[in-house]
Amino acid sequence: MSENVVTMEKIVNLCKRRGFVFQSSEIYGGLNSCWDYGPLGIELKRNVKDAWWRDTVVSRPDVVGLDASILMHPRVWEASGHLSNFTDPMVDCKLCKARFRADHIQDSVCPQKPSKRPGECDGELTEARNFNLMFRTNMGPVEETGSEVYLRPETAQGIFVNFVNVVNSARMRPPFGIAQMGKSFRNEITPGNFLFRTREFEQMELEYFVKPGDDDDWYEYWRKRRMAWYTDYGIKPDNLRLREHASDELAHYAKGCVDVEYNFPIGWQELEGVANRTDFDLKSHMDTSGKDLRFFDDGSKERYVPYVIEPSAGADRSTLAFLVDAYDEDGPEDDRRVVLRLHPALAPVKVAVLPLMRKGGLPEKATELVETLRPHMATAYDQAGSIGRRYRRQDEIGTPFGITIDYQTLDDDTVTLRERDSMEQTRVAVKDLLPQLTQRIAPPVCDIPLGPNRHQN
Ligand code: GAP
Description:
This protein is of the alpha+beta class. It contains 13 helices and 23 strands. Glycyl-adenosine-5'-phosphate is lined by residues 154, 156, 186, 188, 197-198, 201, 203, 205, 270-273, 310, 312-314, 316-317.
């Protein structure tokens, strides 16, 4: 295997070493599948979420946001089908007590004999039984029947139950969307692969409501638009593909579903799903709650239950994909450089200011510049070690620009601006830095129009 291949191990090590992601509760031995974002990781993930919110909500007239609570009325999960359908088949090894998803046995290994599959070792597997993935807890101080609630397994249901509230308060009419980002919880049987599958994770979901009959066009539209989001923010197109679900694979609510898949170090895996959920959810909530959730079109005097197109992405999984895609090693064998080629809009630190020497007025001049830049962008200051070592430290965390302050700066108020990817250095006047950097770290603007027929609203 070439040394340059990106492995999950390299990503995990970099994340720990540089403070992107730590194992949860590490001093107690860690908690399986739970991760804590460190100082750089939280900035990266926040930038990923901001990028999604900007593209999905802020830049569109037809989408509004919502932040619903994690705990919801238990009947929500009855209506959504999660109480009866949100299960995975599980088997146990009678010998070593390890647990596996019955439908993933082909991809699993025996923990005692990793060269064998579960059941092909000395252990015998139990019959498969269904296991509900929702986390249950109790509301209030007494654990009694009727106080049971669930941690939401998807953010989508918070949107459906607020459909009428949003239509009435924000005066939205189909086609329009409600977007939400937030934590979801699933008691996964086999979590793993770092941030890829965890029991607590963040979703970025859009429920886009359309008139029945317009759903196929919007389904096509959102597939394209979501693919473009990943490539606009730097994911290599070759590492991205769409995989249409076969009819026997579709969720109980879906008419069509496509996975946006990414070529992770563990192989091609789902990054996001785009589904045509039809009118299943609103209708189920109407039946279960007894409330009328139809939309009344006062132009045509029609009353109907909208269809829903749902692009549903994972914030943690996207963050992992951006990290993996950006990871690179270059330079000669004896002088390897690890570099995260993150899109500047996603990079946790945008610019590092580095005085060439720790004397002669250079640190003072550098600090002055840091104070000018910091209100506008995440700016680092580093004066420790050789300039080469300092560039490397910034390359490894994906900082797109480095500014070196030297003695010439004191004479003519110019600095050296170094670009992370090309390592090219140019001389720039201090007065031009802020406008130049602001332009170069700006988020991309999607060139796909607002809808299949451009002027929808
Ligand atoms: N509302 C639809 C829905 O929740 P999903 O395919 O189950 O659909 C959507 O989840 C996205 O949420 C996935 O594509 C993935 O990015 C993320 N996701 C789901 N389960 C996850 C887990 N256990 N760990 C991390 N991310 C997860």
